[in-house]
Write a structure and sequence with these properties.
- By secondary structure, this protein is α+β, with helices and mostly antiparallel strands.
- Helix content is 64%, strand content 12%.
- It folds into three domains: 5-102; 141-199, Helix Hairpins (Orthogonal Bundle), CATH 1.10.287; 208-361, 2-Layer Sandwich (Heat Shock Protein 90).
- It is built from ten helices and seven strands.
- The chain is elongated, with a radius of gyration of 38 Å.
Length: 362
């Protein structure tokens, strides 16, 4: 680590300069006082003697002043070291950050004698830790995105190459399968965009007064045939519940929850419930499936996380749906939580504040 001699030298010189100025003023004032007294009382011997004594005393004071200056310079250097050591540590860590050689928050000097410098080091270390964490998360996210996109792209490319080579026969079923893969890619791209905008606090919402019951009914009617195709029942238990929200985003969140239930809940009944309190609108999706593994509950809303990796991939899940739900709820100032009972099903609950309905309708 490169030291900072300029800072130390300036502090030491400043302390020595202040000490020298104080000594000069003190000695000069004393001498001027004695000379003035001698002129006022020129016949007074004792004053003449005092004048000669004051000159001797002045010389002694100069000697002690030199000693004082040396002591002040030494004390200034010690103080400068205690001040500059944390600054040097932060400066060295900042250079490493700039060179991108490391993002480890190792800006920890041996001694932080002052509260302000200790806080400086602490804040820098926290900043470096967050940068390091963010870079690692971005790296993992990029790898995960590449992994998720590779499979459908490989399928589409292989099918098209097969058509060219005559290995596959072009027909309606083959083209529908390709369209399904492309639609999956489009959904993944849209989900990633939603999550990215929400993370940057730039997810735009078109807030109006929304009836959660009516929106839930439209989504249930749309998705009920899909549930029937896999041997599941989709029911609605709803009443009118007005909340200020973006209707399209609420439908997107509900579709993601229902799609998650259809893929992983197994055969059985899924119920969409709408409830309300004075301050909150509540939307629940309850299933009668095996529930969520307890170790997965805390990671359920993490990007690309899956409760059962092999089953999730075979069912076509991307691991983005629940992250999208959480992002949409956060943008609305709401929340999402899971009530889980292994062997008896899981309940996903979305809560939306109702307190700004008047503002939304103005």
């Amino acid at each position: 680590m490169t030291p900072l001699p300029g800072l130390r030298r300036r502090i030491a010189l400043a302390m020595a300069g202040v000490t020298a100025l104080a000594l000069i003023v003190m000695i000069g004032g004393l001498i001027l006082f004695q000379i003035g007294m001698a002129h006022i009382f020129p016949g007074n011997l004792s004053n003449q003697q005092n004048l000669h004594m004051s000159v001797g005393e002045g010389l002694a004071m100069i000697l002690f002043g030199i000693i004082g200056l040396g002591g002040a310079a030494y004390a200034g250097d010690r103080l400068a070291r205690r001040i500059s050591r944390p600054v040097e540590a932060v400066a060295g860590a900042a250079r490493r950050l700039a060179e991108k050689s490391t993002f480890s928050p190792e800006a920890i000097p041996e001694d932080c004698a002052f509260e302000e410098t200790a806080q400086l080091v602490h804040d820098f270390n926290e900043m470096a830790r967050r940068i390091d964490q963010g870079i690692n998360e971005t790296r993992i996210l990029n790898l995960a995105i590449a992994h998720e996109l590779r499979t459908p792209l490989t399928i589409v490319r292989g099918r098209l190459q097969g058509f060219i080579d005559g290995v596959f026969t072009p027909n309606d079923a083959a083209f529908r399968a390709l369209i399904g893969q492309v639609e999956g890619l489009a959904r993944t791209a849209d989900d990633l965009r939603t999550i990215s905008l929400a993370a940057a606090d730039r997810l735009e919402l078109s807030i109006t007064t929304v009836d959660l019951g009516a929106e839930a009914a439209s989504v249930v009617d749309l998705m009920r045939p899909d549930f029937a195709d896999v041997g599941m029942t989709l029911d609605l238990d709803a009443s009118t519940c007005l909340v200020p929200a973006d209707a399209q985003r609420i439908r997107q969140a509900l579709i993601a929850l229902l799609d998650n239930a259809r893929r992983y809940a197994g055969k059985g009944r899924v119920v969409v419930q709408i409830r309300s309190t004075r301050e909150t609108g509540i939307l629940r999706v309850k299933d009668e499936g095996p529930g969520i593994p307890p170790e997965f509950v805390s990671r359920a809303f993490t990007l690309f996380e899956r409760g059962e990796e092999s089953r999730s991939r075979s069912s076509g899940g991307s691991g983005l749906g629940l992250s999208v739900v959480e992002a949409i709820m956060a943008a609305h100032g709401g929340a999402v939580r899971i009530d889980n009972e292994v062997g008896f099903g899981a309940t996903f609950e979305l809560s939306l504040p109702r307190r700004t309905i008047a503002d939304a309708t103005d």
